[in-house]
Structure formats: structure tokens, C-alpha cells
Amino acid sequence: MQRRAAMLAVTLPIAARAQAPLALYGAGAGSAFLPYAEGVAAFLRGRGIAVEARQSTGSLQNLGFVEDDPRALGTAFLGSVQDALDGTPAAGGRRHTRIRALFPMYETSFQLAALASSGITQFAQLAGRRVGAGPARGPAETFLRAALDAAGINATIVSGTPAEMTEGLLNGAMDALWQGAIVPIPSLVAVLSRAPAVVFGPGEAVSGRVVQRLPYLAPAVVAPGTYAGQSAPIHSFAAWNFVVANAALPDDVAQAITAAVLGAADPAREIHASAAATRAANAGTNRILPFHPGAARAYAGLGVRLP
């Protein structure tokens, strides 16, 4: 109780000094990032920290916003963070040097959905097909390309928001929908709720090859029954997501935000259902991005050692 009181003592003076709300970028309609960002923003406003959730195309655009704006926060997949740090083509060839980690969100796993009428039930059957993969150059597309390459097959990639992708699969504009988010993935659940469909993954062998090439990823298994009609485990790969900030965000602001969010006794109830893993103990899942000094102070106050 004393620790949480101390957190609020740090928070309130910051809110009083704020000139305008901080912007927390999530993703588009139908994504998992957007409701998470909205939940965090509402939670922080309730604790006197002015934060406004905003839509975007996802991780890579969020990282660009944060890189350029000390008052921007963003939700980001660690795979995209690695692209941004390295300045890969996926990140537009631009090396990001100002982004810093605040706190863990949840683990992102990748799966596909196809309508039962298509007869597609395995990753190899995507050869020559049209596959939706979210926003152009976003993390879903990046890792779909990695999986296709590992499988030695080619497919036509279709871009759009998760909501557009769902509609595209249902109306026949594409043959399968590939998405990455907290499991069960909302857009795939939406497909299953509206038409007979099957959810599957790259499979154990392909996933193993992707993880070997991209070591910030890890193998992931989706338990039977996670999706309607799913009778067998789904083998795929996954990585964590973090909320990030600009290095120039004042240390006391970064500390207050991090301490407040990680001080939630029941983040799934207080913030959002997808925030169950938003806990200080999961900070160590980030081994590629430096933590903001203010966030580091918050972890120290919680007795958590950072990697």
C-alpha cells in the first residue's frame, strides 16, 4: 500500500505540469494494439496522467512517431523494434536511435485463418494464393515473408487494416488471413464468428527455421480449444510487445507512467483484458532495446532487476 501511495505521489505533480496529453499510438480498427492503448490511456488518466490513445498503422509507424516526438508513446512489437534499431528496409532504411522501452504488454503469436470452403488447412497450401497480412510493411507482413521464405513458397500479399482484412477474407478478396496479436487473435475470432473457417500456423518445422534466423522470436504453441473448432495444437512463433517512449521524455514522466501501469494489482481488470501479462516481472523479455532511465527507476522501486 505504501508503494502504491508513493507512485501516486510521483504521478500527480507531473499531471499538473502537463501542457497537453501525451499521444499513445496503438494501431487500426480491429487490431489488438488499439484497445490495449485505449485501456492504458484511460487507466493513466484515472491516475492524473493525461494520455490520449490514437490510431496508426501499427508498430513501425508508432516507432517513427516516437523517434520524432518526445511527447509520443507507442505500442511496438519487438521484432519491429529490431528492424527500427537496425534501419532495415522494413523500417524504411532509417536507424532509430531515440526509442526507449517503458513496460511489457503481452506476447504476440502469429496464426492464419482460411474459410473452410477454400480447402486450405496447412501453410504449404498458401503457395500461389492471396494472403492478407495487415498494413503494408508492418510486422505481420514482415514475418509472413520470413515464414514463406523458410517454407520455400511464394504468395501474393494483400495489405490493409485488420478490419479490412477480415472483410476481405469473408468476401473472397483473399484466400487466407495472417495476423499477429495476443491469442486468440481478435480478427481471426471475428472470421470464425461469421463463417465456417479454420485457424492454423506455419507448423513446427517452418517456425523452427524462422526462429533460427530471427533469434528475438521464440517457438509458440496455441493449445487446442483456443479457437472455435480447434482440436489440435497450432505451432507458430512469437515475440513480446512493449510500450516505448522517446529518450527525451522527462525521466519523472517516464517513471510515473511505468510505475502507475505496473502498479495495477489486476491489469486484466483495471487496464484491459489483453493486459494480463503487463507486469514488471516480464520486463526481462526485452533484451534488445534500452529502457528509459525513468522507467529503470520505476523498476528499481519495484525491486525488479533489468537485463
Topology of helices and strands:
Elements: H1 2-17, E1 22-25, H2 33-45, E2 51-54, H3 59-68, E3 72-77, H4 78-86, E4 99-115, E5 130-132, H5 139-151, E6 156-158, H6 162-170, E7 176-181, H7 186-194, E8 197-200, H8 204-213, E9 218-222, E10 234-246, H9 251-262, H10 267-270, H11 293-301
Parallel strand pairs: 1-2, 1-3, 5-6, 5-7
Antiparallel strand pairs: 3-10, 4-7, 4-8, 4-10, 9-10
Structural class: alpha/beta
Ends: how far apart?
27 Å
The CATH C-level name of the largest domain is: Alpha Beta
Q: Mind describing the biggest β-sheet?
A: 10 strands, mixed
The CATH topology of the largest domain turns out to be D-Maltodextrin-Binding Protein, domain 2
Give the total of beta strands: 10
Question: Which labels suit this protein?
Answer:
307 residues; alpha/beta; D-Maltodextrin-Binding Protein, domain 2; ten-stranded mixed sheet; 11 helices; 10 strands; 37% helix; disordered N terminus
